[in-house]
Amino acid sequence: MNGYSVFSVENPLVDLIAHVDARFLAARGKRPGTMHLVDEAESASLAAALVGPRTLPGGSAANTLR
């Protein structure tokens, strides 16, 4: 053991990560480099259209620790 430890508390979130091209974004009315708020239905539609997505722990605490 190295003597270091880290602890964080937050609501658990999961990030869905996938590589897409500009055509994928344009077809869905999205612009690269910007944030888009989506509802549950659009989130499910986007997730279904992804090829080979990865899931990773997310949220502010997980991202800060990473």
General description of the model:
The chain has 66 residues and is α+β, with helices and mostly antiparallel strands. It is 33% helix and 15% strand. It contains three helices and two strands; from the N terminus they run E-H-H-E-H. A two-stranded antiparallel sheet has the order 1-2. The chain is elongated, with a radius of gyration of 16 Å. The two termini are 19 Å apart. The mean pLDDT is 87.
Binned strand content = 15-25%
Percent helix:
25-40%
Distance between the termini: 19 Å
Give me the count of strands.
2
Count of helix runs: 3
- How confident overall, as mean pLDDT? 87
How would a crystallographer describe the biggest sheet?
Answer: 2 strands, antiparallel
Unreliable residue stretches: none
Nearest-angstrom radius of gyration?
16 Å
Side by side, the strands of the main sheet go 1-2
- Quaternary structure classification: single chain
| SSE series | EHHEH
Give the CA-based shape. elongated
Structural class designation: alpha+beta
